[in-house]
Amino acid sequence: MLTIAIDAMGGDFGPAPIVEGTLHALRERDFKALLVGEVALLRSLTPHEYLDRISFVEATDVLDMHEAATNALKRKETSIYKAVDLVKEKTADAVVSMGHSGATMSLATLRIGRLKGVLRPAIATIMPTAVPGRLSLVLDVGANVDCKAEHLAQFAVMGEAYAKDVLNIAKPKVGLLSNGEEESKGNEITKEAFLTLKKCESFVGNVEGNNVFDGSVDVIVCDGFVGNILLKASEGVADSITKIIKQNVRRSPLAIAGAVLMRKVFKVLKKQVDYAEYGGAPLIGIDGCAIIGHGKSNSKAVKNAIFQAINFSTSNINADIEQKIALLEQ
């Protein structure tokens, strides 16, 4: 049975939604949970009937969201440090945290370590597309703000492996995010990465920002600086569209009637753009599994982040990445 270590103290709303999300996950999937944090508090939130599949690990310290990520390396009693170390020690198969993303990334990279041949792990995130049932994967979205061409090439390999092994896309199409589709477009780093990626069968060339959402490509590769801006801008646009629709509906009785008729459509739209549906972002390229969740995660997001950890850990992705990286270097 898989064991998932969960940083129960790291989210913005304390341990309650994290414990609740864990309980929801246990109702649907078979795994063992290790809740890391203030044990007395966590026990009080856990119904007795779940104690056969939930264990607790004491952590007396919590890393605040506003602290520097480097502080996590010194603070060995924090819930995130102890949760990551459970994977390092092979006590757990994966770690899930809704806490400090920089700390989770740094600790997972340094404590668990990188896969053989991987230069830098990358944070990947799932994006909705206009094609029903189809998603796109973007990486990196924040782990590496300054990249070299070889890093982008490896991100492509890791993204393809995730799309195939975890998202079950048989033949993923991989694109390099640029300011135009032509091979001549981009900066010096993307142009160099393009030349390396040309020998990959899954590579379809440069793609533009709109291709992230139109379903034409499965994996989009960029550096963490561009990727993080893309991610935050997308979240902002989705939130703004929702607010604009609500504001305009309230102003017109006709619009209210239309909104009632379109209620099912709005429900589908909300579900597609809700980060809780995807749970968290995997840190790909480490010798294990780490899922980085949103600080404002509710219980549904926590449940889906745990499901991501289970799907990742039961796949063959890490072995595939090592094999593909070795082929890329030939």
Question: In short, what is this structure?
Answer:
The protein has an 11-stranded mixed β-sheet with strand order 3-2-1-4-11-10-5-6-9-7-8, with helices on both faces. With 330 residues, it is α/β, with parallel strands linked by helices.
Describe what this molecule looks like in 3D:
By secondary structure, this protein is of the alpha/beta class. Helices cover about 45% and strands about 15% of the residues. The chain contains twelve helices and eleven strands. It has an eleven-stranded mixed beta sheet with strand order 3-2-1-4-11-10-5-6-9-7-8, with helices on both faces. Helix 1 packs across helix 11 and helix 6 (about 150-165) crosses helix 7. The longest helix is centred in the last third of the chain and has 28 residues, at about 225-250.
Quaternary class: single chain
CATH architecture of the domain at 1-118 and 285-324: 3-Layer(aba) Sandwich
Widest sheet: strand ordering: 3-2-1-4-11-10-5-6-9-7-8
Largest sheet: 11 strands, mixed
Contiguous low-pLDDT stretches (5 residues minimum) are none
Mean pLDDT across residues: 88
- The CATH class of the domain at 1-118 and 285-324, by name, is Alpha Beta
Our estimate of the beta-strand percent is 15-25%
The CATH homologous superfamily of the domain at 1-118 and 285-324 is termed Isopropylmalate Dehydrogenase
Count of DSSP strands: 11
Instruction: Give the helix tally.
Output: 12
Rg over CA atoms: 20 Å
What is the third-level CATH name, the topology of the domain at 1-118 and 285-324? Isopropylmalate Dehydrogenase
Molecular shape: globular
Share in helix = 40-55%
| Distance N to C terminus | 38 Å
Order of helices and strands: EHEHEHHEHEEHEHEEHHHEEHH
Report the structural category. alpha/beta
